[in-house]
Specification:
The complex is a heterodimer of chains A (214) and B (208). Chain A has 214 residues and is mostly beta strands. Chain A contains 2 helices and 12 strands; from the N terminus they run H-E-E-E-E-E-E-E-E-E-H-E-E-E. In chain A, strands 2, 3, 4, 5, 6, 8, 9 and 11 form an 8-stranded antiparallel sheet that branches. In chain B, strand 2 and strand 3 form a beta hairpin. Classes of the chains: A mainly beta (214), B mainly beta (208).
């Protein structure tokens, strides 16, 4: 009983000591930090498509419309849509994923099927093109695939200045600068190209300019 | 009856003696106490100096052993604004248009104001929710802060010196710290944190 009492006394004294330490006067100074981060973002801001119609009564009975959008706002009266090259903005609504789909359908020789996509850099910090990757043909394509790349021509401009592939590597982008990609497919007169198909994917990867490694 | 009379007599005598005590002469000495307490007080003092005076400063990849240098091409993309609040008790630090590996080195002074000595005890770090995430008691601490609580650190802070330094009235000490934005920081976000400098009366400063 005496030992228990002694222990109790020691505990009381110890707690009292802690209480005194916690009760010390203090004064505080505060730094409140706010980090507002910027962004790196390339958005799809426009596409154009080509529509080819058969129209009785016009030269060659053929009408070609190439213009902005994924649909033809003014199809010819009495025309029958024969072939098309349609560009579609497939970006997700939040803009986190930016993508474009080019679909060439029922092509035939001697017509320029052209699509284009306009990309606008909307980031607030500078970016550079780290890489442009082309996966073609898509793995697992059917046997009737053609090497469509032979018949495609590409044109890239940045702020209306034509850029070669070599110039695109590491190209720096600032706010509201525009990349315009124009792709045209023109098939030659070759019967072997009938009833063929092809798919591929091109990826443009940007990186913040201060971490770019050639 | 004789015993009862004797008891009565004794009681009367006893009461009489008490009456004598109450009636005794007295004299009083008074001690009046007055305690005037001191004040424990310090403040931030400018000017605040920072490394970002134009072209950004970048540090790859961390503060511990990273390489500092001017951002590529000398670009001025991010900026840091520092303001001392009323009473010199707070500093607002705002980094705008920050990006991974934007860094800054910031220097200022701590200044003693109180009438009793104060020692710089500890530095508390709070995240965006006001949760205490780290307390530094010694110099050269590297503190990683996950400010958006996504499991990845967004900002790193290094604090240099002056723990245990004593501040008398008008004592001043240069202090500095570094801040680095890390790769996992989210884009288009506003991330906040708080650094709380705690001073304690010199005689209760616990040795780290």
């Amino acid at each position: 009983m005496k030992r228990l009492g002694l222990l109790f006394l020691v505990l009381v004294i110890a707690l009292g000591g802690i209480g005194a330490a916690f009760a010390a006067w203090t004064d505080t100074l505060t730094i409140t930090g706010t980090v507002n981060t910027g962004s790196l973002d390339l958005d799809v801001t426009g596409v154009s498509s080509t529509f080819v119609y058969k129209v009785i009564g016009v030269p060659d009975e053929l009408v070609r419309h190439y213009g902005p959008g994924s649909t033809d706002p003014n199809p010819p009266a009495g025309g029958t849509l024969i072939a098309s090259a349609i560009a579609t903005d497939t970006s997700n609504p939040t803009g986190d994923v930016d993508s474009v789909n080019f679909a060439f359908d029922n092509l035939f020789p001697c017509i320029a099927f052209t699509v284009d996509a306009k990309f606008t850099y909307t980031g607030t910090i500078p970016a550079r093109i780290q890489s442009i990757g082309l996966v073609y043909p898509t793995p697992g394509q059917p046997a009737n695939t053609i090497d469509i790349d032979k018949y495609l021509t590409y044109s890239v401009t940045v702020n209306n200045v034509t850029q070669t592939p070599a110039q695109l590597a590491g190209l720096q982008l600032h706010g509201q600068e525009v990349i315009m990609l124009v792709v045209t497919c023109h098939l030659p007169q070759d019967n072997d190209l009938m009833s063929k198909s092809a798919t591929g994917t091109a990826t443009i990867q940007l990186i913040q300019w201060n971490e770019y490694k050639p | 009856m004789g015993k009862v009379g004797l008891l009565f007599l004794v009681l009367v005598l006893a009461l009489a003696s008490v009456g004598v005590a109450f009636a005794a002469w007295t004299d009083t000495i008074t001690i009046s106490g007055s305690v005037t307490t001191g004040e424990l007080d310090w403040e931030f003092m400018g000017p605040i100096i920072q490394a970002d005076t134009g072209p950004d400063q970048n540090c790859f990849w961390r503060l511990e052993d990273g390489t500092w240098g001017t951002a590529p091409e000398g670009k001025d993309v991010g900026s840091t604004i520092l303001t001392i609040g009323a009473g010199n008790k707070t500093i607002g630090l705002t980094i705008n248009n920050a990006y991974p590996y934007y860094g800054n080195h910031i220097a200022l002074k701590l200044h003693g104001l109180g009438t009793i000595p104060l020692k710089f005890w500890k530095l508390n770090f709070y995240d965006s929710n006001g949760d205490l995430v780290f307390t530094a008691y010694e110099p050269d601490e590297y503190v990683y802060l996950d400010l958006d609580e996504d499991g990845y650190n967004d900002v790193e802070v290094w604090y240099g010196d002056s723990f245990g330094d004593q501040f008398h009235y008008c004592t001043k000490r240069d202090v500095s710290f570094e801040i680095l934005v890390l790769q996992p920081a989210p884009q288009n976000a506003s991330l906040t944190f708080t650094m709380e400098f705690v001073g304690i009366q010199w005689n209760e400063y616990p040795l780290p």
